[in-house]
Amino acid sequence: MKFNKICIVGLGYIGLPTACMFAKAGCDVLGVDINQNVIHTLNNGGLHIHEPGLKEVFERAIDSGKLSFGLQPEQADAFVIAVPTPFYEDKKADMRFVSAAAESILPYLRKGNLVVLESTSPPQITSNLVMPILEKSGLIAGQDFFLAYSPERVLPGQILRELVENARVIGGLTPESAQAGKELYQSFVQGEIILTDSTTAEMVKLMENTYRDVNIAIANEFLRLADRFGINVWEAIQIANLHPRVKILNPGPGVGGHCISVDPWFFVEAAPDIAKLIRTARLVNDSQPSFVVEYVQRILGNLQGKKIAALGLAYKPDVDDLRESPAIEIVHLLEQQGAVVTAYEPFCPDSGCRLSVGTESTLENTLADAELILILVGHTQFKHLDPQELLSKTSARKVLDAVHILGVGWEQSGFQVYALGNGQQLKAVHANN
Ligand SMILES: NC(=O)c1ccc[n+]([C@@H]2O[C@H](COP(=O)([O-])OP(=O)(O)OC[C@H]3O[C@@H](n4cnc5c(N)ncnc54)[C@H](O)[C@@H]3O)[C@@H](O)[C@H]2O)c1
Question: Residue 259 catalytic?
Answer without folding.
Answer: yes
